[in-house]
Specification:
By secondary structure, the protein is mainly alpha-helical. The chain contains nine helices and no strands. The protein is globular, with a radius of gyration of 19 Å.
């Protein structure tokens, strides 16, 4: 997937938005509206649509972008697209769970093929394999305690309380260890060349 298949992906505009240009960010998000709406259409079933406001979903994603754009490190439009998609899909899932709890509406939320091409090419497979090898190499280079806490939290159901018990630490120490491990891994990964160049 590139700018020719998704014309709203504009690397220059993304770079200006990351530099703090609010007009560029606004234009980029406005151009992202249609692809995001397509995701909502695919992910939210007819019965859930009566309880989930599409504009609220979009505003939530836009707000998350405004709040956390400075933490977005890539200059790659595809990575920005995937980042937006993850935010939207998480928000849809959260709202669907809330609707199910409140109204008893039971309808599955579709899994996400979203803005990422669902049929990866052999070149994409090779790129993913190479990137995974780099991530694993950097992960293995971390101190053992960092590796342990990251492995525990690879399971989404893992809580800090569970980690603390398993590691024989306090819950606060477990949180700090996870934060430090993530920061160290992030720094090590930032030293590698971008796959989008």
């Amino acid at each position: 997937m590139d700018a020719t298949t998704h014309p709203w992906l504009d690397a220059d505009q993304l770079q200006r938005a990351r530099a703090g240009d609010q007009a560029s960010l606004g234009a980029l998000l406005q151009r992202a509206r249609r692809p995001l709406l397509a995701i909502i259409q695919r992910q939210v079933g007819r019965r859930l649509r009566h309880h989930i406001d599409v504009d609220d979903l979009l505003q939530s994603v836009y707000l998350q972008v405004l709040v956390s754009l400075e933490s977005f490190r890539s200059e790659c439009p595809r990575a920005f697209s995937a980042w937006l998609t993850r935010m939207l899909v998480r928000d849809i899932a959260d709202r669907a769970r809330a609707v199910r709890r409140e109204y008893g509406v039971s309808e599955p939320v579709a899994c996400s093929d979203c803005l990422i091409d669902p049929r990866p090419t052999p070149a994409t497979h090779a790129q993913i394999k190479d990137e995974l090898a780099v991530v694993l190499e950097r992960l293995r280079g971390l101190p053992e305690a960092y590796q342990g806490i990251l492995n525990l939290h690879a399971d989404p159901a893992q809580t800090h309380k569970d980690s603390a018990v398993q590691l024989g630490r306090s819950e606060g120490a477990s949180r700090v260890l996870l934060l430090r491990a993530r920061n160290e891994l992030r720094q090590r990964l930032a030293r590698r060349p971008s796959p989008c160049r």
